[in-house]
Amino acid sequence: MASSSSSSSFLPYPHYHSQNLNPNPNTNSNLPFLQHRSLRFSLNFSCVSGPRYRPSCLPAFPGSGVSPPPPGQPSRQPPDLLQIAAVSAVLFLGFGVRACSATSGRFPAVVAAECRTFQDQGIQDSDGVGKFEDTENLEDKELKEAFEIWKSKPYALTVPLRIVALRGSLPPSWVKDFMQSQGRRLRLLSNFRGSLQEIFSELCSVLRKGNIEPKSALAADIVTVGDSWLDLAISKGIIEPIQGVEDQDWFRRLSYKWKVYLRRNSKGTLDAEGQIWAAPYRWGSMVIAYKKSKFEKHKLAPIEDWADLWRPELTGRISMIDSPREVVGAVLKYMGASYNTNNIELQVNGGRNAVQQNLILLAKQVRCFDSTHYLKSFSVGDVWVAVGWSSDVLPAAKRMSNVAVIVPKSGASLWADLWAIPSTSKLERSSRIGGRVRGPSPLIHQWIEFCLQGARAFPFTEEVIPGASPSAIEGASVEAPKELGKGKPKLETNLISGMPPPGILDQCEFLEPLSDATLSDYRSLIASIQKPTHGLHRCILSMKELFQQSYLQR
Hints:
Shape: globular
Number of strands: 14
Largest sheet: 12 strands, mixed
Mean pLDDT: 75
Helix content: 40-55%
Radius of gyration: 49 Å
Structural class: alpha/beta
């Protein structure tokens, strides 16, 4: 089919010239388009289209180039007029029928399609938008509506974050505030353990057995690790370094002291070229608590420094934690040395023998060496002085009356609770690991960033949780509003917002990993005081008396 002919036949005035037509109506060799039935209407339409087209049966108009009949022949004008009228009537009726059929929608498919194309083009030209743009806008609207419905679903897309923390170290408001900041996309699960040793032991046992459960500490995205356990956790491979810390804002703002202390090699020792294995979220110091009522009754001077623990009037009146680093460290501070002395023989006045003698004297002063029950001995019984971590001592002291808590003037050891990532690379990946199948949660850095924000320091300054914010390690503490402290019992202490005062803080130090030779010296020193006549035996007797009193009170 010649589409060009079809299109031109529907123009109001077709450009067909009379000299191009065949004068013989019986032949159509010069009109090939008349051979197609679909163009019959075009021929009829052209026959009645006026001066643009004249059939051969019609008389010639003046100037048309057709000769008139000879004068001798009779005129045939009336019959010709009748014939013209008849033909015109037939053609007119044919056009009417065809026109009516055209309005009834029975166009051939090609012609109808072309007509629709012209109509569409006309609509587009008239309004400047077009049906295509309308359809596109409709699709965009439907897409936006579908997206809003998808966003409204509570579990359309969730990001898990599972935390295993030391009980009492994490302010309850942190979890709530972090969930609000992340919205419904966060799926936060938090579990707590009773001690740092429990977390460490659980990580080791699960990794050794290889039987990991979804609720185990090793399956968590991030766990609490004590700074004194950090070197062991690294060397045993139960935690992995935090990747990409150099690009994180929280690490850039972290104090230089923290960066030096947390950068370790694969053996867990400090290394300037090592990696960052943990991030701090709470810290504190060793403190000494004493009963003011007992000291006032016996007219004893208040305790101010480590040397006071060797006073004769306090013999058998002291309870202390049983950590070798802290016990030997207290002797070293008393002798003017550092907690992190690597060569006791060369770096301490009097050498190892002097340290051993002072350690034996301290053991005679201490009634109980026990990290679990030393505060019970302090609250009930004849113990007047307790030496331990501020995270333990401060809550116990607030429950008691007439108790003072101090950081020794010559300085003390510092402790820290850290966030670390459990290492699951040695385990076979399975769905039982939960969120750790494809590695740690992508929200780890956001969680650490959140914990280190300045607003997170208020639970410490409000004394809701004992300790201090890591940002205060340089001595710039965050003061709590005065109205928050109203109605709370006042504790006599030299701590400021849970941390040592600036002058004493400069003398404090974190416990760094020791060499194997120094650890051997520590073991031999501790062995020298582990005798029935010394503090350990008295501690057992004291705890027996305590349990008997508790039983009788029931």
